Amino acid sequence: MTLVQLEYLLAVDTHRHFATAADHCFVTQPTLSMQLQKLEEELGVQLFDRSRVPVRPTEIGKEVIAQARLVVAESKKIKEIVQNQKQELSGELRVGIIPTLAPYLIPLFVTNFMEKYPDVRLVVQELLTEEIVQKLNYELLDVGLLVTPLDDKSIKELPLFYEAFVAYINPAHPLASSKAISPEQLDLDELWVLNEGHCFRSQVLNICNRGGAGATPSGHFDYKSGSLETLKRLVETQRGLTLLPELSVLDMPKEKKALVHSFQEPQPQREVSLVVHRSFLKKKLIEALQQEIVAAVPAPIRNRKKEQVVGIK
């Protein structure tokens, strides 16, 4: 049994296709297949059900793969120990970030991070929470930027800051005259929300204390959005209101900030965190990313204490 064989094993489990796994490992498919066959012969078990498309691990295969992930991860830590000793920050850092954070958080820190660490290649993908967790488990990402708590034992959460929710209200709406609102005043029939799959949607419905489907404030117009910017425009041009994260309204022009209304204390918050797999690597790089993000967040948000965190389920 070799580390190379275990890496091929993990690649097939990740991609569920021998040819794709071979491409990922920069070898030919016959080479990869031969090495996996040798591994199966040595262990005396079949690790994949090749009769199914896509291929899937057998029951014993699942257990072997889980252990293989630990072995390969531990072996990679040897290189990391050497790199840490050299005090070098270099290489590739693969980051997944949810869409309700990406356009507001990335511009705050990315320039300083890249200038400070010119030998680091930062690769960022916008993904939903479930996709980020899955890619972390398959080692296709190094770190995620999302909203917690996740209640996932395979994931380690590193809270960064607590961001308040605000209401964005059309001037013609009765609540537009209120300086601060309460969750009890919100009517789902007037509230624009994101599509299912977005954790922000779940939090908004939790603030309203309802598990409903969300709103389409006009009976003649049904629009399913995956963008907070679209929700803002709908509030401005149609009617009703929506809820937004605090970072998304910081750079608004003065006339649009008039549509922003805070909640009464204690304000509902979302916990923004870095998340990594329990056996994560690239610790120095991730620590550097953590420090740069916290330093770049505006002081009122950075210094806010944890109080009324809204769940995402």
From TrEMBL:
<keyword id="KW-0805">Transcription regulation</keyword>
<dbReference type="Pfam" id="PF00126">
    <property type="entry name" value="HTH_1"/>
</dbReference>
<protein>
    <submittedName>
        <fullName>Transcriptional regulator</fullName>
    </submittedName>
</protein>
<feature type="domain" description="HTH lysR-type">
    <location>
        <begin position="1"/>
        <end position="58"/>
    </location>
</feature>
<dbReference type="InterPro" id="IPR005119">
    <property type="entry name" value="LysR_subst-bd"/>
</dbReference>
<dbReference type="InterPro" id="IPR000847">
    <property type="entry name" value="LysR_HTH_N"/>
</dbReference>
<keyword id="KW-0804">Transcription</keyword>
<keyword id="KW-0010">Activator</keyword>
<dbReference type="InterPro" id="IPR036390">
    <property type="entry name" value="WH_DNA-bd_sf"/>
</dbReference>
<dbReference type="InterPro" id="IPR036388">
    <property type="entry name" value="WH-like_DNA-bd_sf"/>
</dbReference>
<dbReference type="Pfam" id="PF03466">
    <property type="entry name" value="LysR_substrate"/>
</dbReference>
<keyword id="KW-0238">DNA-binding</keyword>
<comment type="similarity">
    <text>Belongs to the LysR transcriptional regulatory family.</text>
</comment>
